[in-house]
Backbone:
């Protein structure tokens, strides 16, 4: 009696980017168009199989990603036209760059050792950046905002910047980079950490804008952080200025021969 042999299943990682304006964030949900849903539908068209994907993070509604990774398991091998066909099946605001095999221990979300975000602020109205940056009117003291960054680098508990009613076990994050960059009529906030809480970056930016405009003083920041109360921090800035720009993995542990 013949037995069916189970085909060899391989875990693959995809590297991609997306412009988040049209999407209700990354994660599939019953209501609303999401990036995960668009990718799974495109994969099904190309592979003729439903292949659930796991992303490296749950970006919120309207947030963009310049660098994003996901993984999925597949019992076939991509051919040389796989990326071309997948991009043809995807909406134009999502682009896949490469696919490569990884070990079964690789997990797009939990294997990442750090992530980096940027927040873009324009100081002059610009019709070409209206969906991709936050226009902020008024003078800002960038020196004080940089001092706030230096203080935040010494902090560990970021509950004050976390959305309420989250199911996290800890509010501790290890900040590795926190700084402002001025480029002509644009301010860019750079922040890198081992993990981020929901709404954390947008709340950080809103709080530092309060410091830069004089609404909040630097001396009040330590007390704000120690209180652990989101209502004491600044208003969250709009999602359209936020970009996930880097996700870092110890690839030497997870890459496998193609």
Residues:
């Amino acid at each position: 009696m013949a037995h069916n042999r189970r085909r060899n299943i391989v875990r693959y990682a995809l590297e991609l980017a997306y412009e988040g304006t049209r999407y209700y964030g990354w994660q599939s949900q019953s209501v609303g168009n999401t990036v995960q849903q668009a990718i799974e539908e495109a994969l099904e068209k190309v592979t003729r199989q439903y292949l659930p994907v796991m992303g490296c993070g749950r970006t919120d509604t309207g947030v963009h990603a310049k660098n994003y990774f996901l993984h999925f398991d597949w019992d076939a091998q991509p051919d040389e036209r796989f990326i071309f066909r997948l991009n043809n099946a995807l909406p134009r605001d999502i682009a896949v760059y490469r696919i490569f095999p990884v070990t079964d221990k690789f997990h797009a979300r939990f294997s990442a050792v750090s992530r980096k975000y940027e927040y873009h602020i324009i100081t002059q109205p610009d019709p070409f950046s209206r969906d991709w940056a936050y226009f902020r009117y008024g003078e800002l003291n960038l020196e004080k905002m940089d001092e706030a960054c230096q203080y935040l680098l010494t902090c560990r508990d970021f509950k004050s910047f976390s959305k309420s009613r989250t199911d996290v076990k800890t509010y501790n994050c290890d900040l590795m980079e926190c700084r402002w960059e001025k480029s002509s009529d644009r301010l860019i906030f750079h922040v890198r950490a081992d993990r981020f809480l929901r709404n954390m970056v947008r709340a950080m930016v809103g709080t530092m804008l309060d410091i830069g405009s004089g609404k909040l003083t630097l001396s009040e920041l330590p007390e704000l952080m120690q209180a652990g109360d989101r209502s004491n921090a600044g208003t969250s800035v709009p999602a359209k200025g936020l970009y996930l720009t880097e996700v870092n993995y110890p690839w030497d542990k997870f890459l496998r021969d193609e």
Q: What stands out?
A: The mean pLDDT is 93. The first helix runs from residue 35 to 47. The chain is about 20% helix and 25% strand. The chain has two domains: 10-111, 116-245.
